[in-house]
Amino acid sequence: MSETKKITLTVDAGDEGVRLDRYLSDELEDYSRSYLSKIIKNDGVYINDKSCKPKDLVKAGDEITVIVPEMAEPEILAEDIPLDILYEDDDIIVVNKPKGMVVHPAAGHFGGTLVNALMFHCKDQLSGINGVARPGIVHRIDKDTTGVLVACKTDFAHRAIAEQLAVHSINRIYHCICLNQIKEETGTVDAPIARSKNDRKKMAIDRVNGRRAVTHYTVLENLGNYSYVACKLETGRTHQIRVHMSSIGHPLLGDNVYGSGKSAWNLQGQTLHAKVLGFIHPRTGEYMEFEAPLPEYFEKVLSGLRNRT
Question: Which helix (H) or strand (E) holds 135?
Fold first, then answer.
């Protein structure tokens, strides 16, 4: 059994007017909205030390206290799921994540995740810093994004990689296919990102409340009304490339959140691939760089577009 938790949150200006249960479900992603509503109704949530209801609207500056009762941790099981391993040693494991695989367990996805696969392959040799549901996970990519991801076997390695992520020193290059031809060969989108005020499941450009986000892009090929692009991340915000490219009129092909999602290829989500990942090895201090080949579906789309032009 886990112990009772006390969580304190301060409401940002960008969340003004959002329902309390909705605000909490966005901020506390490990808990479902229905579970949080139950905690509120059982007097486990206070706004500025006062009891409240799920439908109450939060205000900027509100201090919200959430008392999460002790609950049994969900059992995360090792599963014999094949891994495409690019590199492995006693500290880290670098894999090429396939499309459709969730990185770590969460509500609705307790099986079939990368974590389940890592637990089977690595046994009990995964870092524990992120808790029982996220062993070894130091960063993640979206379910429908493919490509290079590093997991950590030791807490020592986890702390070292996390520090490189925090100071943005890791080399991360993604390949994507965007709608509409991009005229300039290179460019940079420097626009802060925050959760969307209109749709809490989405991220958006927010120049008042957003966190700084920078994406450098290079056009690899113009293919009629599409562009094959390499994006280098200077920062690593949620959905950063998808939000940034959409904001300049070039949403990713297949993206049903920041674009129309429609295409002639019956795609499963956005055409986005984590192509290159480079970092300083925690133990040796040497720079290492890994590259994942484009997945088959991505190559087929490129081939189809090239044949059209």
Answer: none
